[in-house]
Target: Putative vesicle transport v-snare protein vti1a
Amino acid sequence: MTSLLEHYEQQYAVSTADFTAKLAKLSKADRADRKFLLQELDKQIEELKELLEQMDLEVRDVEATVRPKLKTRIDSYRAELARLEQEFKIKNSTNSNDGYMSQGELFGELSLREEQKQRLLDSSERIERTNNKLVESYSILLETEDVGNNILRDLHSQKETIQNSRARLREVDTDLSRSSRILGAMMARSRQHKVIIAAVGVLLVIVIIFSVYYSVTRSR
Model:
């Protein structure tokens, strides 16, 4: 694994040396050669980036004791590549403007582009945050709507329960009225029976008294 990493490092050293040599030739090359060199340099930058990615993958598999040292070395390679890429951009901009732009102006233009890029990134982040807030608000709205629908269903169910209870109360009231009428009729019949029994009792007493009186009178 370490031998493969060393191979990548050697390849990186050779490629960066070749890149630096081509970059030096760029300012002295004619129009046709400059176009060819620009294409080669741009392609070589991508190859160097891929080479650094391969180094990163190899470092992940090495022992933990030596990993920090190797990562530091790869970070230095990455910083060097960033410097070469920046220098390439300056050379490219200088040649594309036929030498009419100074390095100060180039740095100013690059800074302006970076500032515009940063503004675009900030705007994108703000838009994303706003979008997330809208999504969150919409989710809360849906939850609130669900809660409202549940409350309406509960109220409808309670309304049906109350209506059923009222219907049962009316039935009970009807039954109570019927029972009251039946009980009144039974009490009236009971009073009639009492009157009849009392009349029969009085009649029996009269008959008994009359019989006793008749018997006494006849014996004399």
